[in-house]
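>> received
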Amino acid sequence: MRRRILLAIVGTVALALVLAGAGTYLLLGREADRATESGLRAQAEGLSALLDLSRTARLGAVRQQKVVSGLKLEGISVVLVGPKGKVRGELPPGVTAADLPTEQVLAGETLSGRHRELVWASASSPLARGGALAVVITRSSQRPRPPLGWFLLGGGAALAVGAAVAWGVSSDLTRPLRRAHDATRQIAAGDLAARLPDPSPGDRTEVADLTRSINDMAAALEHSRGLERQFLLSVSHDLRTPLTSIRGYAEAISDGTATDPAAAARVIGTEAQRLGRLVADLLDLARLDADGFTFAHQVVPVAEVVQEVVEGFRPTAEAAGVALHLGPVVRGTEARIDPDRLGQCVANLVENGLRYAAAALWVEARPAPGGGVLVAVADDGPGIAPDDLPRVFERLYADDRRPTRGPAPGSTAGSGLGLAIVHELVAAMGGRVRAESPAQPGGRGARFVIELPPPPAPSVPAPTPEG
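>> returned
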């Protein structure tokens, strides 16, 4: 890039020098022609006045002829133009009778012109018996020769200065880009802590914006790597715990040391369900990334879907000692959604609430004030820190809250997948989900709210003309 900038600036300077030199030479040439023509006009007028004076002084014809001959020796022509425009006398080479219009000559006007490199001028004095006596002078145009030596010397100096300025400017322009290149190579090599020097807050240039974008990208990648490590640790723990239980109870049954084989088999089944749910959630996220998730949208009463899902959690809530409160089923909660996917979202939120609730969990579905439907799941647990609220739906993110109890059998709560899946599914159905905390007096509790848009208005068929 530096080379291109250098060549562009030097080339621009060279082109400007050539255009300026050519323009100056042309202007000087035109000015020289104008000065030559002006001088010839003045000389012709002076000679015409001299001839007129010789006639008024009543010099003899011989003396007048000598004056004309002397002028002719100097390359000056004196011609007689008759009343009808007939020219008597010899005109200078390159000048024709057409260059001397009769009316202007008889009126005593001064004429001038240019034929290529020949400049001519004519001044006339009218005669008493008719006609006019015209003096015609010619001279070759002497344009100044271009000072090539000085031009080349000055042009070389200007190009040297332009090259020095171009080198400095290109260095200043490309230095931040080289730094950005080095930083991005470090980031690509895995050094996510690489950063560029932060520009001043008031710097709004393109380079400053690029610097901020690279730093933001590096910070986001570093944050994502931290979440990925946290996620892998969490998933590894969630996989290891049920696998340990399954292997232990399976070995006990195989060795015949299990005191209650039926209970051991139930534990194996429960832990297997938990593993299956974790794998299913991972597959769901992968399918959402690949746009491979299918949705069967239909207009359904959301309150009934929520009621069906919540009733399925009552045994789990009773076993955990949590009072599960379900709001009344009201009208006006219709939305165009996939009921199975909405049920999955509500189930994930209820599982999350049961994990953190101290004594009670509230679930309701009601019409939104501005249209649409709201589904809210609130608990009386420790709540969510303000810094964590915007990030609870990020993939792989697990907050620092200590759950009141462990995850329910078959659940993947705490792995950082459940809330991320809720966010993706709700967005795919055209809705939004948000977290609020605190949700209860005393600064406790958290509330998760799903906002679903109203169903589209039914199309009204156009009236058919009668008759």
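>> The first strand starts at residue 77 and ends at 81.
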